[in-house]
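Could you show me some protein's one-letter sequence and the numbers that encode its backbone in two labelled lines?

___
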Amino acid sequence: MTEFYGLPNAGEFWHWTNALHFVLVGLAGGVALLAALLHLQKAKEARLFTLIALGLIALDLFVLWAESPARFRFTHVWLFLTFHPQSPIWWGSWGLALAFLSGGLLHLNRGPKEALKWVFLVASLVVLAYPGLALAVNLNRPLWNALMVALFPITALALALGLGLLLKQAWAGLPFRVFLGLALFLATLYPLSLPPEARAHFLEEGGLAHGLLLALGLGAFFGKGLAPWLGLLSAAGLRALLVLVGQWQGLGL
């Protein structure tokens, strides 16, 4: 991303491609975590989930590259040539890279397998955590508050487990309902966590969509056949909504 946070008074600086990135990176991180856990358990499904995680990471990186005006200058290589542990973006870049590398080696059955399983696990946790942190540290955007740190990893796990259900993995059923329920609970509380001015803006710009996405998520607990689809739509939609509507800086800024 050429301009991750935008400048004061810059207005909207992210568009649908950036929202798509926040959905894809959550799905990629969640599936990578499931794959790493399956590898540690020596489960036969580990190979399938690793392949899916690799495809999602590659697709997410392509979206990031394609939406950047600097895509043919490759200026983002500096993220791997500098040391900025205080930056969530730096952590996210390395998390994606190490998840792809360790997952790829595991899929190809190359390298020290036990060590790679743990690298894959840690890297996937970093990928899960960094989007919410990247939003929460931006003090110029009052809609991106501390709740992002919890809401984004939880919705990511709901996405990954919903995909697991679509792949007929029975073990994904209970954790899918747990994480989706927790995501809906936090998303319901979210407007109440905002200052009055920010809450009014959120409800005006995204209140209807927010309500519809919560309703879709609740539907996942009642419509058995459609449950994974409803959960995926709800979790993905909430992530995209918070990214797009959250760009508001407040009156007078």
Q: What stands out?
A: Residues 16-40 form the longest helix (25 residues). Residues 159 and 232 are 5 Å apart (CA to CA). The chain has a mean pLDDT of 89.
